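Note to self: keep these together.
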Amino acid sequence: MAQVSIIIPVLNEACCLGRTLRHLDILDPPAHEVMVVDGGSTDETVAIAQEWGAKVIFADRPSRAGQMNLGAQLATGDILCFLHGDTRVPDDVVMLMVTTLVNPAIACGGFISVMAGQHTTRWGISLHNSVKTHYAPLLFRPHRYFRDRLRILFGDQVMFCRRADFWDCGGFDERLSIMEDADLCLKLSRLGRIYQVNRLVQSSDRRVAKWGPLKANLIYLAIGFLWGMGVPGPWLKRFYADVR
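Structure:
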């Protein structure tokens, strides 16, 4: 069976990382390796990663795209899985990824992301994020949506692909401070289909909790629309501040 390397880019994720790694510890079958790529955390992130037995890597030039590329360079699995530090996956996620990529026509996969917090599940935003996988390419790349079955996945959907395909398309673009995941989908889609697996993963609602649902949805919509229109990533990043 193909081996899966799980790569987690982190920066001050002490509040969430332990829970994520606890779920990875019970995967059946287990991942080949879990790699936490730290971008200069000043909290207990690294200690938590070491406590759970993850392979910790320190990035010299921290950026999410750069951290994920570094993890991919050092990974030894056949399949690369890029996981956010605040996201939980089902315990059979390794088998789901392996069986999905058995199909040579599929170049990249991801899941349906449900956003939840301690007190509530953000069903409206979760539905919008799932539908966005379809309407984003339909709006901005309609010919490829129908011709190539292009779909746009985002980081909280737990993207995965073959290591060989990842490097064939150049990996993540480190010039992008945001939307590097969507950019990777555009590149991988030239090698095969982008596929959304009909299973759930759960990510933190901390941005929505801080911004409020209305503001969060407006920001998500604005960033997606402006990206589709070709607005540079550094300018978009101004609207998407880190929330810890």
